[in-house]
Amino acid sequence: MKTLKCGGAAAVLAALLFPAVSASAIADTLPGTGKTVRYVQADSLGANYVADQIVAKAMQSLGYDVKLSTMNITLFFAAVAQGDVDLSTDVNLPQREPEFRAVEKQAEIIGTGFIAGAG
């Protein structure tokens, strides 16, 4: 799984503070310019649906081309291990830990999630 870094957040802030700067100059400095993220949302309409939409829009605002797909999170683990998708923020740990352990050589957990220690 690819790690997303938000180093270009300064470019977004600069765009808000200095609107006279051309949009194309700012777009060239965004960290996601020219990069595609294959982002997975769960196939349930649970509470994470809204959060997934917010994360996708935030990545787009950083210049990433976000390809959003919907699948069962159990299938996400196989898809990420095969390199078919990059990221999901809809994985609940520790409930999904067994599925993650099966692919941990091909994937990684980034951060502690929306609710650290949730269960």
Automatic annotation (TrEMBL):
Keywords for the protein's UniProt record, in alphabetical order: Signal
Keyword Signal: yes
A Pfam family hit: OpuAC
Signal peptide as annotated in the record: 1-27
GO MF annotations, alphabetized: transmembrane transporter activity
The keyword Signal is assigned to this record: yes
InterPro entries named in the record: ABC_Gly_betaine_transp_sub-bd
GO cellular component terms listed in the entry, alphabetical order: ATP-binding cassette (ABC) transporter complex
Annotated ABC-type glycine betaine transport system substrate-binding domain residues: 47-110
Protein name: Glycine betaine transporter periplasmic subunit
